[in-house]
């Protein structure tokens, strides 16, 4: 009688540190060399940055921010710009989540027998979308969409589609295949298997990814206004350009409060989903 292979093969310890077989060690060593080479090749002038004159200049600059402008007309403008930034980030994230899910399905191998012919070109498209930063997308879209929040919203949506599409595709591919295999064995079609077996398993993860990207898009939406894409960033660029430092301080405080509020809301929502 032939010996049966062990159900649980013995665990192989990884190679020790500084061993030639330790690939992770070689990778870390290569990254350290790259960091050291970066310090050597860049003229960082660290000594000048930490000098007394630099500290005094920074102190005089920060003193110009106080007191912030808390006049009622300006606070009203800041409130409108804050709501505009919030709306840009929320709408851009929603559009990206829908488009990312639509692209994630052809970018995934849904089961072992799936040929996934569209997987490679769809992933190439997702890589292209997320390779271009939001700021570059906004600068390009300003030509066709003009100044205002439309260009910023579309810029956020395009970049975030690439990010969420790739994350969604990985989540779908890594989902347990058992429920889908059971439905396919009963002759259920691909769309119904995806709707009733695959998506319900990964839905909390997809929502969590979307909320996390919404946090990032709040920060990005504030920056996009610098190129004229609306929101708090547009006000910030205008008043900083005119050296209205008291108004700039108010805008920076509004950005910090908005980001903190959205971060707290997103964190609480993700904790609730993962219960």
Determine the CATH superfamily: MetI-like
Class of secondary structure makeup = mainly alpha
Q: Give the proportion of residues in helices.
A: over 70%
Mean pLDDT equals 83
SS summary, helix count: 11
Rg estimate, integer Å? 25 Å
Can you tell me about this structure?
The chain is an all-alpha fold and 275 residues long. It has one domain (69-273): MetI-like (MetI-like fold, Orthogonal Bundle). It contains eleven helices and no strands. It has helices at residues 23-41, 46-49, 52-63, 72-104, 119-131, 134-145, 149-173, 178-185, 190-224, 232-241, 245-273. The longest helix has 35 residues, at 190-224. The radius of gyration is 25 Å and the shape is globular. The model has no long low-confidence stretch (mean pLDDT 83).
In terms of topology, how is this protein built?
Layout: H1 23-41, H2 46-49, H3 52-63, H4 72-104, H5 119-131, H6 134-145, H7 149-173, H8 178-185, H9 190-224, H10 232-241, H11 245-273
Helix pairs in contact: 4-7, 4-9, 4-11, 5-7, 6-7, 7-9, 8-9, 9-11, 10-11
Keywords:
globular; 275 residues; 11 helices
């Amino acid at each position: 009688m032939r010996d049966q292979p062990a159900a649980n093969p013995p665990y192989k310890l990884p190679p020790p540190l500084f061993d030639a077989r330790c690939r992770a060690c070689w990778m870390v060593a290569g990254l350290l060399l790259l960091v050291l080479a970066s310090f050597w090749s860049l003229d960082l002038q660290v000594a000048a940055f930490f000098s007394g004159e630099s500290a005094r200049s920074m102190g005089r600059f920060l003193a110009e921010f106080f007191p912030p402008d808390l006049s009622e007309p300006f606070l009203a403008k800041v409130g409108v710009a804050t709501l505009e930034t919030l709306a840009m980030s929320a709408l851009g994230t929603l559009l990206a989540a829908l488009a990312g899910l639509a692209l994630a399905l052809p970018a995934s191998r849904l089961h072992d027998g799936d040929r996934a012919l569209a997987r490679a070109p769809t992933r190439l498209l997702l890589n292209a979308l997320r390779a271009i930063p939001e700021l570059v997308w906004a600068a390009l879209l300003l030509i066709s969409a003009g100044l205002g929040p439309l260009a910023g919203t579309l810029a956020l949506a395009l970049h975030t589609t690439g990010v969420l599409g790739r994350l969604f595709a990985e989540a779908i591919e890594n989902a347990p295949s058992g429920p889908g295999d059971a439905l396919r064995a009963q002759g259920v079609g691909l769309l119904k298997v995806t709707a009733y077996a695959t998506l319900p398993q990964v839905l909390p993860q997809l929502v969590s990814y979307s909320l996390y990207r919404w946090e990032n898009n709040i920060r990005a939406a504030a920056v996009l206004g610098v190129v004229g894409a609306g929101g708090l960033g547009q006000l910030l660029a205008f008043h900083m350009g005119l050296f209205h430092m008291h108004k700039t301080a108010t805008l920076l405080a509004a950005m910090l409060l908005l980001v903190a509020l959205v971060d707290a809301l997103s964190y609480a929502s993700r904790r609730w989903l993962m219960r």
